[in-house]
Amino acid sequence: MDYRILIIDDEENLVKGVKYNLELDGYSVDASYDGEDALRKMDSNIYNLIILDVMLPKIDGFTLLKKIRERSSIPVIMLTAKGEDEDKVKGFEYGADDYLTKPFNILELKARIKALLRRTYDLVANKSEIIRSGDIMIDVPSRKVNVDGRPVDLTSKEFDILFLLVTNPGKIYSRETLLEIIWGYDYYGDSRTVDVHIRRLREKIEKDPGNPQYVLTKWGVGYYYKG
């Protein structure tokens, strides 16, 4: 599969360097230096992954991420300033799939891109069924979810978590195990990442997120799906 990536960052030298290195690996890469141009490109092109900086002119990265999530569940890697943990948590709450702190090693960025694309597009590559569980219906090939007959927009990570739990009902996954399976062994995040995604997933699929009936917590152990 040929992957197309959009880089959104106002640092011209960084963008040129990343674009050059990714194109050497066979990716098709477009660049935007502000949020408005990025939205125009997304209106006229189909992308498989977005690299998004937090600090952008015209439209900041968080606002742009919200706009992206209104139209797509495309995987998004956010770039944040060193030590800005609040930005990382906020990014996950807004629907980011991964983050990388500037300055970063291009090899680490490549590894994260490869892992995220593989998990997003290969997880259900050989599946062709519709999964139904209670009010939840998962169209596996198209990665679409309906709850009680209404479409629910999940990010790629939220979909992957739901798919894993639904297809393994009753099995308890620790935060560390979910990080390994969904984010990959090379992921350097912490358990807050999982908690944020589980909370967002519950808000979207549960009638009462505070008293969930599908995605449950085994206190001190992890999360599981009750079919």
Task: Describe the protein's topology.
Elements: E1 4-8, H1 12-24, E2 28-32, H2 35-44, E3 49-53, H3 61-71, E4 76-80, H4 85-94, E5 98-101, H5 106-122, E6 130-133, E7 136-139, E8 144-147, E9 150-152, H6 156-166, H7 175-183, H8 191-205, E10 215-218, E11 222-225
Describe the structure.
- Keywords: DNA-binding, Phosphoprotein, Transcription, Transcription regulation, Two-component regulatory system.
- InterPro entries: CheY-like_superfamily (IPR011006), OmpR/PhoB-type_DNA-bd (IPR001867), Sig_transdc_resp-reg_C-effctor (IPR016032), Sig_transdc_resp-reg_receiver (IPR001789), WalR-like (IPR039420), WH-like_DNA-bd_sf (IPR036388).
- The chain has 227 residues and is of the alpha/beta class.
- The protein has 2 domains: 4-122, Response regulator (Rossmann fold), CATH 3.40.50.2300; 130-225, Orthogonal Bundle (Arc Repressor Mutant, subunit A).
- 42% of the residues lie in helices and 21% in strands.
- It contains 8 helices and 11 strands.
- The protein has helices at residues 12-24, 35-44, 61-71, 85-94, 106-122, 156-166, 175-183, 191-205; strands at residues 4-8, 28-32, 49-53, 76-80, 98-101, 130-133, 136-139, 144-147, 150-152, 215-218, 222-225.
- The strands form 3 sheets. The protein has a 5-stranded parallel sheet, with helices on both faces.
- The model has no long low-confidence stretch (mean pLDDT 88).
